[in-house]
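Async update (no meeting this week)

Hi team, since we skipped the sync, here's where things stand on the single-chain job. The sequence we agreed to prioritize is pasted below, unchanged from the tracker. I ran it this morning and attached the output directly underneath so nobody has to dig for it. Comments welcome in thread, and please keep replies under the output.
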Amino acid sequence: MASSKQFTRLTDLITCPVCRDLLAAPVTLGCGHNFCCSCITQRWEREARKCCPECGEEFAAQSLRVNRALAGLAEMIQNITLKPGEEERPFRCEEHQEEPKLFCETDSKLICYSCVAAREHREHRFLPIKEAVDAYKGQVKSALDSLAQTKSEILRKEQQQRRDIARVRDDLHRLQTHIASEFSKMHQILTEKEGLLIRDLSADGERVLNTMEENLRHIQDQLRSVENKFSTLQKHLEQDDSLIFLKEEVSWKNRCRDADHSVSVVQSGLSLEKFCGPLQYIVWREMIDAINPAPASLTVDPNTANPWLIVSENRTSLRLGAKRQRVPDNPERFDPCPCALGSEGFRSGRHYWEVEVGGKTEWEIGVARETVERKGEFTLSPENGHWTVGLEPEGDLVAFTSPSETSLSRREKLRKIGVFLDYEGGQISFYNADDMSHLYTFSQTFTGRLFPIFNPGLNDDGKNSSPLTVCGGLGHQ
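Output:
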């Protein structure tokens, strides 16, 4: 009966290198390598060059030769089984052919007692096989526990990533719908305005053309009358009978005297300035009332302004004064922080306003909760109910996030900042109002009333004396 090693070597000889099973309908290539007929033909059908998968030598398709001897041998091997108990010989030490009783930790190798005295194992650490198994099983268990934790963490991250991907897809769909809706509204406004202008133009044109065509018919009637008189007088002039000529003279003189041949040309009465002026600008100005949100005309609430702040008479600008003003110390007033709130608060909706910051070396603007701290020192941050951006004295533009500020990149000095609040959408965004390039966005679930907040910064030895100015609405610029 074949031994395990002999059986293995024999099986390897009749194993197809492609499918790794016993050869089925074996064929032999010119290079001597054997394959299942179906394996090599299917492989060659997928490849341009017909090469041996083992050595790479190229052949023609007709070079396949059926190997009946291998076919018979493969069939015999399929029927061979080892006797029970003879599947494997006991493991022996390769050097002494003894059953191993120890495990050499230094070499990570099974050894017998005779190996202990060998030179290569001197001063090595040995363990009984059972102890080694227990120790290494403990290590494997620890590794499995660590891998289980790693797997759990990876699964958690996979689920989080899937949720994030789903959220981004939802955001993309929502934003695409939002963009399409906003442009649809503008398209509708423009289409309606275009239709109205065309109808007005058609009505004006029809009125003017009717008048001009009526006048043309009058001119043509006058022309026919003149032509008839001309023809009559021509005939009268050609009259040879003197008595008849003189007799008809009085008649044609009366007809020519009584006839009214006055005509005039009616000019175009189209309102050219209405239809040929700066049409795009005119329509844009008329669209202001339909824009949502349009730049709002905000004012500063002087009752919230720090005593050192000077609010302009029209309440649209504020700056830090040279001395503390004598104003009531009411609960809503900021002190000592040099801030002020806008006069109008928002509980819902979408709002946009612009603030001039050009010429300043320090400022902070944004949105704050109505309930923010007014007295004492505090830090502008979302945790404290402030969502703001600002320019620091060093010239850095930052968003006042926490636990630390977020630096914002900018290509040029900012002249005007746009602030956009979407209450239900949980968004406060900041823009360079000159070109509407995006600077930063806070995302938050809002509750209670929100107010614009302004901080003009310290004077910086007069370098920052320019005021913060709230721009007027779009219709007032």
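Quick observations from my side:
DSSP finds eight helices and 19 strands in the chain.
Confidence is low (pLDDT under 50) at residues 81-88.
Reply here if anything looks off.
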